[in-house]
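hey so i finally got around to running the thing on that chain from the lab meeting. sorry it took forever, my laptop kept dying and i had to restart like 3 times. anyway pasting the input first so we r on the same page abt which one it is
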Amino acid sequence: MEDEIINRVAQSKLVTIDLEDHYPKGERLVLDIKDWLYEGLIVREKEFRQYVQEHDWEQYKDAHVALTCSTEAIVPGWVYMLLATHLQPHATKVVQGTLMDLETALYQDVIKELDVSGYTDKPVIIKGCSHKPVPPNAYLWLAQKVQPVARSVMYGEACSSVPLYKRK
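ok and heres what got predicted. didnt touch it at all, straight out
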């Protein structure tokens, strides 16, 4: 009689949270205003407003948009605010910064809305590896969100997790 192989991980009460499962849907776009600036460096209000008026804002429908300037220009704050007012009816999310800044803002919203009541008194593993661009801060925020309810919080995989927190 052979010994039966038992998968103790599958039988355990461990609960894994994979941030990839919560990856916000929607196209990510960058609007770089460098070409709308005089010599790529100076905001000339009249010319800039002309570019804004002529721009096709419909292309951002249901997208997440990062507003940036890839040159060393000093861009007044009102410029990004003006762009945001034109994106508001079209885009789902708008941030000033890089694509990583955009992902961070998206995940901040996701974790804020995440219902963690299902993790009450359970050992939780926050899965570490991801194929999607999950920002590092998302892991911190998730650990902080789940800690008050979980019995323990770990990072990694069930077979090789790093303990982070255990309720006393």
